[in-house]
Design goal:
single chain, two-stranded antiparallel ribbon, alpha+beta, 2 domains
Length: about 200
Amino acid sequence: MGAPHPVLNTSVLVLNRSFLPVHVTSVRRAFSLLYQDVAHAVNEEYRTFDFDSWTDLSLTVHDETIGLVNRVVRVPRVILLVAYDRVPKRQVRFSRLNIYTRDRDTCQYCGQKSPRSELNLDHVIPRSQGGTSRWENIVCSCHACNRKKGGRTPEQARMRLIREPTRPEWTPFMLHNFSLRHYKEWAPFVNMVDVSYWNTELRD
């Protein structure tokens, strides 16, 4: 058995039925939703297509394609959930991923940018000293700085924050977030700025 096609794990923008972005999924999942008739593909002219009509589309030399059982099919970059009309919340979810995004994967003590696997979250005022888990008290830090600081405040550890942590504003934060993996087909929808990011909210 051959390796799965690498395009299957690339990103597809998901819209609600009002054409507002609500999520990002994979090409693999997008084809599954199309096949189940839960979603329709959307082209650059805002036309929607069910699975059969999408697979019947003629291809151009510039299209991204993937081979199905007996045909080559254009890769959808935008899909619309046909029965989903919820509107995304206009707030940035307080989560590990969003803190890394706010701090741009950069240790807020030494300024070193690292892969997320080499970073962790630090309570500026430690919980042992009454610090809480909120936007204004948590920063991205490298393992070395986290060990050096320990259970102390930056002042006690003689360390300085590059910038004070704040709650991100919703619109520019989300535009930056989606631009990290942006396809040209997303532009008309992402520019509407009503986007949401689904992940687990952090709690004390």
